Each structure stands twice: as C-alpha cells, then as structure tokens.
C-alpha cells in the first residue's frame, strides 16, 4: 500500500491560475421538475443464481387505513436562559403527557425530540397550550461548588434548593394528516405524496423507544450506554457500536432495515484521565491547558461528591489552591452576628469545609460549571465525563486505522448481532405500533441473487488475464502499453529512506513490467536545515535544488514524503509541480520495498505518463454493446465537502470524462470549487458576460471531440456519486439541464441521449450467503425482493470482501434514454469495476465514480495549506459571495493537463 499518493489531482488545462470568480450561492432554479425517476423496465437474468440473506426484516401492517396526525410543537422558557430543547425536550413532553393526560384523551404519541409530535387519530383540540414545570440540576448549589458571587454558605446541611425548577410554555398546533395507507400504495408501485412522511413517523416511533431506554440518538441510529459496545481508539476517543434502523418499501413489501452502526464518543470517566489520553501525555504537569480548555468546553460532567450533572463553560484562571471566591459564613464561626464574607480558595473550601480529600488538584485549574458572569468551580479530580457524549472532530489516521481494525465483523457475526438485537429490544412491542397493527419478524429475509461472470482483461504481449475472485496480477506479465522514462529524478524529504536502493529496485521492477527506465538523473536529499521550516518553504527550496541540478524539465519526479498519510508536504508539492511547473510526480512513503509495493506504484506512474495498464478484452476488440457503434461518453461525478465543523471550507466538485472512444478505461478530470456543503454541482455550465462558457462540461466535451477523431458524443452515461434519494430530482433536472445547455452552447442541435445513474455506498443494506460463512462472491447482483417497488435500482457487489462484511453498491437508474436492457446495463457496470488503473482488484463501485471521488479529495489538498505568507506563489485570492467565501482552485499547467493525475 502506498502512503500519501492517494491524493493526486487533476483539473482543466490552463497554464496560469485565473483570478477568483464569483460562484453563485445556488445553482439555477427549476420551477417544476421536468423529469421524474424512471420505472423498472424488468429484471436481469444473466449469471448463476445464488440464495442470499439481507439485513431486512419483514414488516406486516394489519391496520393500513390508520391516519397519523402531525402537530407542531413549540417550547419556550419564561427565563432568560439557554433552553436546550434537544436535551430536555422529551422530558418536557413526557411530563406534559403525564400531567395533562386528559387533554390527550388517552392517546399515545411519537415525538421527534424537537418540533413534531404524532398521534394515531386527532387530539380533542387542534390548538393546545400548557405550562410545564420541570426540575433540573442547578450549577449554583450552596453545598455543591464554590462561587465568587457570594452565594455560597458554609453549611453541613444539603441545600433545599438543590433542584432548580423551570417553567416551560408548550404550544401544540395541528399541522397535517399523514395516511398510513400511502405506504401500501407505494408498495403497489404508486408514487403517493405522503409515503416518506409516513415512513418517517414509523422511524420516529422506533427512535422514541430507544430514547426512552437512555440511548444516544444520531439520525436514524441509536447507541446504548453499555461499556461492552465501546472500543478505545486512542486520544480519549471511543467508537460506540449501536444500530441503524429504517423502514423501507421494497418489492416484497415493507421491511425494517437493521444494521450495526458506529459513532464516536468521548471516553467516559475521570476528566483528568481523559485529558492525559487526549493529549498523549503521562503526567498532568505536561497538559496544555489552553488546548484542554477548548476541548472541554460544553462537555457534561458529573460531580463525584454529589452525583449531579453540570456543563463545563471553561477553566479557572488560577490553580485550585490559588483560585479565590467569596464565601459567606455563619456567626457561629465567631464573626459578626449577621454573618460575614471571607475570601477562600477552592482547594481550602473542599478540603477543610467539605472534608473532601484532594490528592492531585491543588496545582491544576478548576472546571468552571457556572455562567459566563457567575463562575462556579469544581476541582478536576471530582469530575467525571458523562457517557455517550459525541466526538465530532476528524479522526487522526491512527485513530481511523484503529477504529477500522476493531470494528470489523465477519458476515456471520454481523447476522448474530442484528438478530440478537431484534429479539432483545422487542421493537414491535411499542403501543403506537400496536395501534397500527405493525409487527416485525425476527429473522433476516431470504432473497434471490445472481453472480455475474468476471470480464477478461487484455495486458501486454497479447496476453489475456481472467480475474479470479475479483483479483488478478502482473506476475511475469507486461503492462498493455508501458511508458518510457528517460529523464527523471528522486527527491527525498524523509531521513529514513535509502533512495539509491529504492531507485534500483523501481527500475528493476519496471523493466519486468515492460516500462523502460533509464537511471535517475539525480538523487536529491533535503537539506536537514530546511526541515524546521514550513511545508511551503521546504517545497520551494527543493524545487530550487531540482532546477539547479537538472539540465531541463524532467519527464517525471519521484517524491519520498516523510509521513505515510496526511503529510504537510503533499499539498504544496502537488500544487507547485502540477499547476506552476507542469511536472508529473509520484509521491510515496514506503515502509517496505517489495515487488508488490513497487508494482502498485508503477501502475500509477504508467497511467500518469499516458500508458495503459490493462483494458477489458471486449473493449480491446470493440465489442461493447450499445457503445461500440455509437460515440459514447462516460462521466463520473462527485462532490467532496470539508470535514465536520468546517462550514467555511469550499466544497470541491469533480467530474471525470472518458476519452478515446470506444475505450472506457481512459479518463480526464475537471475540478472546481463551489459553495461550502453544496452537493449539487453548480458549474457544469458557466456562462460568462462575454458569451463564453467556462463550465466543466465544455472542457470535457472538447476533450472527447479531440481524442475521438472528431466524433461528438451521441450518448452520455453519467454516474453520479454522493446524492441521497431526496436529491434525485435536482440531479435529474438542475444538473442534467446544465449538461444540455453546455452541449447547446457549442452550437450543437442534436442533444445526446442520456443515461443517468446514481451510485450510492452510504447505505445500510448488507448481503450474506445463506449457506456459507464467507462474504458474497464478486459479481453478486440483486434486482428483486429488497429493491424499490417501482424505481429502477439494484445492488451489486463487484469486489471481493476480504475483511469484515461486504457493503454492496446501490445503483439507481434515474433516466435511460439510451435504452439498456437490465442485463446489458448491469454487465456494463460490473465491467466498469475492472478498469480502475491504480488497482489489480475489482473496485466496489464503478471506476469513473472512484476517479471523481479521488480527484475531488486530492484537489482539496490545495485548499488545506493557507499560509501563503511563506511564499509569493499563492494560489489565488478569495471573494465573498453573500455570506460565503469561495477560493477558486488553481488550474493545471498545460504540460500535464491531459494526464490521469487522479491515478
């Protein structure tokens, strides 16, 4: 496996980066959808049959004519305080139902925890108002924690105000009727208006059950507070296993999709232990308290001495043994009859007045659990982090690897965990489900699948390769069209790599694969003095050395990075080489140099330099159904967003297009930045005031025309990644309209026929062999039983699942103007999983989508290094678009614009 090289980049062919352009905050609007999702034309028959299990449970509905009544809920507080409705909303509503049961006429309800409440049948009145009094723990208890506001009294008695009562005004107003019958209609193939609303109500009922059991709810998943479900991944962070559940309409009826799910939580327990783990230090004296303050803010803790819960707002400015506060004492202590106020440290208060021994808090800050202007302090060692607090920051590469390693479940283990959960948690015992006559079976459903035959591949010297179990290799074989590399160099940012040995082994391995390697012109080691500089300066210094030591531009540079993943060098290096100088580069960070590792590196190098590693045999002989006789362009589209919490990071849209028709293995990428978190691609067609179009599609259409002997695409197959079912209409209308306009802008009258397919990996359906413990074989396809009752979708496992449980790709055919039969389309998609030039295994999703995803992720590296003060070679400026700032990405140098850099 290669380290940082999973982040190549590709963009449009312009030598100099243009200025930032103003991107629209929203794509062009369409008043009424002109296109709707197509219906299923039939089922496939090719391949051998196989009996499977799916993690869906059969659901029966005995009272389909019931009607859910939706009510909007508003909760306000008469005090000028924060009202954490998400945290206490359920408590308020249950208290209301308990106090005013007559107003609900004995009806059970489902509450989503925020703004909506559902009942079966109407409430007596359409508008209800209640005042609900709820008791909450207060952070200002006289017997709990010291404060500087003079409100604490020295007393051995427990304060009678230890619970603070809040009055909430609750308004419930009728909103809508949601007939359960819409689900039955959807199962019969209709497209009723309320089906998603009805399914959402059923999902909310299950979520409410989980909430009543004290679970953490995250979208449609829930997590029990059970240490057996926790997995330590380092840094004070744990993976918490839970369950996803959602009702799904399928061809065989309504099902409940149940799957194992994981979320990240903070390690519960002593706060000091968490800080030591989070900062990876062994003793409290090494803790960075500024960092700790940022980490702890808004977390919930429980006090050991009182068992009460508080929210952290910060840390004290001074250590516990120096932090003073004002405390009132009674006259029994020898002061004036009316009592007096003394200044006392937090440490002295707890040790002398509360008789609580503090062993290691004296020299550490206290937790502030009060209000911004009314601090209340607790010593660190008395506080424990409450369980099930989500951790939403990005995991480090080490944490991610640990999570993956510890979360793997073999197919049989996953089946047992799911079926045990269904049995133990008794989902259909809910009274609201019982009212509707909803019952859930306890066993996974059995379904029919098919296994498609793997396509043959063409490699060098006229040889054919037949993949076995989704895999093949280049042992004693040449690449189909190997490159010739004459002038090249090795640059080394790592102090641990022997570049002389590396270059000799790479040359030797390359020659066995047919690649002609000359000896490297030079081996350049980084000056040790530069290693303390910032990454941009280090890259600039290295390129100064390269230019000085090479007689001219190299064909290729091999760059050895100091870290395998997330190297700070990577972004500046790629930006400088690809956009400023136009040099093909390959980044590596080898742990072991062996034939397998070097072969994987050579596959990428060869593709970047214009070579071809392998082709489909039918592609080589131009025997592609529906494609061989009609110029056909294949597109892969994806959008990459910033990490959670990074709302100001531009999203990166990438579109790859096929070249050299009738081949379907060669692609080029165009990448653009757009408004943060915007999923719909807004720059497929981008008209300028002067009448030009600088959109993505124009570039790809011209490239297709140039590489296909002047042929224009008469058919375009689009694979769209990353969109949910609720966004299908936008893809069908907004994005497709942009593609058509871009084609028309080139002066073309005959619009190509489009086939538009959404490829999803972010779903929860799993497939299992019914009679074997192994994962399903590569090529497994399912287009019956668990698919949509009307729409044209299917599941496919093209790859071999070697570890854990295979996740199938879920393909949704939204539009098919080309007119593929189910068998031809499914075999084409299966074949497109074997043309990924970086790999000698079938991919889990079609190669165009993999390339688009890779190009978007890799080019996002350019946005990561923002300290342009280190060098004058900045990548552009930032312009504000409304409230959003979007940095336009640099464009590739013309020397490298035709290369498959995303390889």
Would you write up a description of this structure?
Helices cover 23% and strands 27% of the residues. Strand 41 and strand 42 form a beta hairpin. The protein starts with 47 loop residues before the first strand and ends in a 16-residue tail after the last strand. It has a 16-stranded mixed sheet that branches. Among the domains are: 124 residues; 109 residues, Beta Complex (paz domain), CATH 2.170.260; 130 residues, Response regulator (Rossmann fold), CATH 3.40.50.2300. With 903 residues, the chain is α+β, with helices and mostly antiparallel strands. Helix 2 crosses helix 3 and helix 10 crosses helix 13. The radius of gyration is 31 Å and the shape is globular.
**Record field, number of beta strands:** 42
| Oligomerization state | single chain
Strand % is 25-35%
Q: In terms of structural class, how would the helical and strand content be classed?
A: alpha+beta
Average of the residue pLDDT scores: 83
Distance between the termini: 14 Å
Shape: globular
Which residues sit in consecutive blocks of at least 5 with pLDDT less than 50? 1-28, 138-145, 147-162, 866-883
Q: What is this structure, in a nutshell?
A:
Residues 139-162 are annotated as: Disordered. With 903 residues, the protein is of the alpha+beta class.
Question: Any key phrases for this structure?
Answer:
903 residues, alpha+beta, paz domain, Rossmann fold, 16-stranded mixed β-sheet, five-stranded antiparallel β-sheet, globular, disordered N terminus, RNA-binding, ArgoL2, RNA-mediated gene silencing, Argonaute_Mid_dom
């Amino acid at each position: 496996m290669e380290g940082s090289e999973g982040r190549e980049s590709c963009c449009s062919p312009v030598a100099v980066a243009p200025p930032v352009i103003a991107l629209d905050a929203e794509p062009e609007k369409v008043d009424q959808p002109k296109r709707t999702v197509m219906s299923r034309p039939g089922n496939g028959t090719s391949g051998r049959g196989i009996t499977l299990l799916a993690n869906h449970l059969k659901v029966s509905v005995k009272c389909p004519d019931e009607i859910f009544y939706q009510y909007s809920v508003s909760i306000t507080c008469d005090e000028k305080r924060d009202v954490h409705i998400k945290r206490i909303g359920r408590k308020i509503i249950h208290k209301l139902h308990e106090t005013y049961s007559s107003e609900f006429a004995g009806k059970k309800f489902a509450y989503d925890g925020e703004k909506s409440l559902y009942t079966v049948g109407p409430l007596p009145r359409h508008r209800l108002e209640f005042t609900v009094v709820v008791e909450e723990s207060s952070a200002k208890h006289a017997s709990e924690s010291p404060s500087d506001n003079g409100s604490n009294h020295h007393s051995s008695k427990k304060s009678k105000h230890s619970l603070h009562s809040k009055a909430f005004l609750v308004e419930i107003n009728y909103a809508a009727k949601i007939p359960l019958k819409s689900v039955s209609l959807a199962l019969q193939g209709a497209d009723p208006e309320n089906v998603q609303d009805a399914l959402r109500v059923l999902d909310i009922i299950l979520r409410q059950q989980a909430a009543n059991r004290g679970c953490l709810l995250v979208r449609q998943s829930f997590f029990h507070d059970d240490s057996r479900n926790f997995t330590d991944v380092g840094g004070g962070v744990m993976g918490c296993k839970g369950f996803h559940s959602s009702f799904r309409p399928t061809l065989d009826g309504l099902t409940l999709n149940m799957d194992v799910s994981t979320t990240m939580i903070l390690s519960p327990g002593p706060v000091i232990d968490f800080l030591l783990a989070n900062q990876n230090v062994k003793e409290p004296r090494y803790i960075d308290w500024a960092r700790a303050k940022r980490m702890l803010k808004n977390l919930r803790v429980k006090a050991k001495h009182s068992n009460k819960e508080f929210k952290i707002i910060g840390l004290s400015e001074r250590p516990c043994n120096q932090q003073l506060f004002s405390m009132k004492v009674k006259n029994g202590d020898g002061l004036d009859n009316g009592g007096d106020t003394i200044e006392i440290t937090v440490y002295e208060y707890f040790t002398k007045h509360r008789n609580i021994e503090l062993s290691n808090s004296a020299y550490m800050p206290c937790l502030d659990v009060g209000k911004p202007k009314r601090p209340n302090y607790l010593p660190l060692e008395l506080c424990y982090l409450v369980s099930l607090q989500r951790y939403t920051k990005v995991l480090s590469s080490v944490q991610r690897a640990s999570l993956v390693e510890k979360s793997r479940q073999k197919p049989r283990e996953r089946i047992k965990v799911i079926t045990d959960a269904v049995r133990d948690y008794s989902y259909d015992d809910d009274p609201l489900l019982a009212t509707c006559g909803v019952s859930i079976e306890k066993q996974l459903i059995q379904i029919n699948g098919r296994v498609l035959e793997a396509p043959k591949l063409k490699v060098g010297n006229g040889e054919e390769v037949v993949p076995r179990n989704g895999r093949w290799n280049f042992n004693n074989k040449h690449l189909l069209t190997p490159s010739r590399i004459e002038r090249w160099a090795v640059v080394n940012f790592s102090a641990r790599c022997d570049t002389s040995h590396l270059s000799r082994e790479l040359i030797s391995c390359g020659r066995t694969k047919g690649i002609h390697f000359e000896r490297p012109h030079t081996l350049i080691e980084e000056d040790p003095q530069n290693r303390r500089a910032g990454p941009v300066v280090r890259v600039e210094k290295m390129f100064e050395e390269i230019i000085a030591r090479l007689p001219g531009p190299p064909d290729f540079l091999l760059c050895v990075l100091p870290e395998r993943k997330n190297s700070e060098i990577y972004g500046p290096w790629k930006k400088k080489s690809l956009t400023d100088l136009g040099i093909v580069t390959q980044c590596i960070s080898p742990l072991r140099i062996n034939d397998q590792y070097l072969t994987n590196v050579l596959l990428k190098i060869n593709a970047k330099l214009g070579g071809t590693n392998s082709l489909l045999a039918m592609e080589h002989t131009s025997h592609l159904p529906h494609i061989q006789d009609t110029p056909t362009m294949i597109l892969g589209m994806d959008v990459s967003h910033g990490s959670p919490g990074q709302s100001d990071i531009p999203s990166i849209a990438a579109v790859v297009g096929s070249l050299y028709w009738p081949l379907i293995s060669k692609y080029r990428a165009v990448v653009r930045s757009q408004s943060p978190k915007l999923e719909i691609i807004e720059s497929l067609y981008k008209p300028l005031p002067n009448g030009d179009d600088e959109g993505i599609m124009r570039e790809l259409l011209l490239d297709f025309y140039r590489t296909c002997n002047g042929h224009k695409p008469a058919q375009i197959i689009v694979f769209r990644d990353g969109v949910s079912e609720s966004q299908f209409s936008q893809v069908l209308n907004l994005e497709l309209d942009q593609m058509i306009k871009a084609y028309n802008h080139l002066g073309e009258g005959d619009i190509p026929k489009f086939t538009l397919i959404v490829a999803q990996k972010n779903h929860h359906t799993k497939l299992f062999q019914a009679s074997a413990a192994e994962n399903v074989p590569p090529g497994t396809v399912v287009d019956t039983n668990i698919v949509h009752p009307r729409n044209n979708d299917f599941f496919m496992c093209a790859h071999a699942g070697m570890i854990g449980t295979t996740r199938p790709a879920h393909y949704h055919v939204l539009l098919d103007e080309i007119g593929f039969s189910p068998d031809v389309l499914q075999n084409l998609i299966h074949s497109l999983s074997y043309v990924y030039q970086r790999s000698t295994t079938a991919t889990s999703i079609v190669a165009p989508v993999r390339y688009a995803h890779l190009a978007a992720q890799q080019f996002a590296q350019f946005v990561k290094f923002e300290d342009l003060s280190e060098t004058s070679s900045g990548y552009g400026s930032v312009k504000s678009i409304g409230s959003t700032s979007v940095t336009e990405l640099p464009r590739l140098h013309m020397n490298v614009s035709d290369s498959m850099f995303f390889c």
